[in-house]
Amino acid sequence: DDKLQIEYRVIPYGDNLRLLVARDVTQIQQINQMRRDFIANASHELRTPLTVIAGYLESLEGDLDSSAADLQPQIRQMRQQTSRMQTLIEDLLMLSTLESRSNKQPQEPVAVADILTSIYKEATALSGEKNHMFALDIDHELLVRGSHKELYSAFSNLVVNAVLYTPAKGIIRIRWYEDDKGAHMKVSDTGDGIAPEHIPRLTERFYRVDRGRSRESGGTGLGLAIVKHIMQRHHGLLNIESELGKGSIFRCDFPPDLLVRKSDDTATSQ
Ligand code: ADP
């Protein structure tokens, strides 16, 4: 809509004065909306042709007769790259859905313990020969109001990153607990760690500390941007602490008013 949009800020000025700053952000918001629409449409349009290409490549790979067997590596490469593009497009689409304001936040009580248990199983498989040690410390009674699908995606992104950026035999710890500030989902790893100058930029789209390394691991560079948006939609925050060479802690903080205890689940949910 082309309504005038004004952003206000109150700035303390001396001991008992306040400055009120009003800024017309109509045009900025329109441009942002155009950018969001463009990304959503482009990703959507790219999805179908890619699905077709991926399908044909898959059957081609299976149908090669012995005379064409030496094409196998190239076809496998094409399939892998196509699959990377598909992941990228799904991530871009997910980000646009998260950003669109018309997309309301579901308020179902979400069993975080169940989510973390399945993610833990997936992570063990992904860890494979790296043989990480996983430590789980999960409050099974603690639920949070929100979207099951989004929280799954956010937590999975963090745990998968811990697996990808932690060398063999490292320790990955997953916690879900409550304290006086709210509830927290915390993933700590004894991995590569991140230098302080990178930390504030990690949640920017396509920001990667080491492009080559991240591409190799199959990352899109959109994971943490997605986590940040999902946390914002749950009135929460993503907190990152890390030390180069020692490891990282990614913590999702949820405010107390979103929390539900399993015992009073039926009483409070409609
Ligand atoms: P990617 O798809 O590249 O993993 P993300 O947005 O998930 O993108 O992460 C952005 C960057 O943050 C990664 O490329 C990596 O450099 C860094 N990173 C994320 N998680 C970790 C971690 N647990 N340990 C070290 N570095 C990490």
TrEMBL record:
Function per UniProt: Member of the two-component regulatory system PhoR/PhoB involved in the phosphate regulon genes expression. PhoR may function as a membrane-associated protein kinase that phosphorylates PhoB in response to environmental signals.
Protein name in UniProt: Phosphate regulon sensor protein PhoR
BP-aspect Gene Ontology terms: cellular response to phosphate starvation; phosphate ion transport; regulation of DNA-templated transcription
Residues in Histidine kinase domain copies: 41-258
Cellular component aspect of the GO annotation: plasma membrane
Keyword hit for Ubl conjugation: no
GO MF: ATP binding; phosphoprotein phosphatase activity; phosphorelay sensor kinase activity
Reaction equation(s) it catalyzes: ATP + protein L-histidine = ADP + protein N-phospho-L-histidine
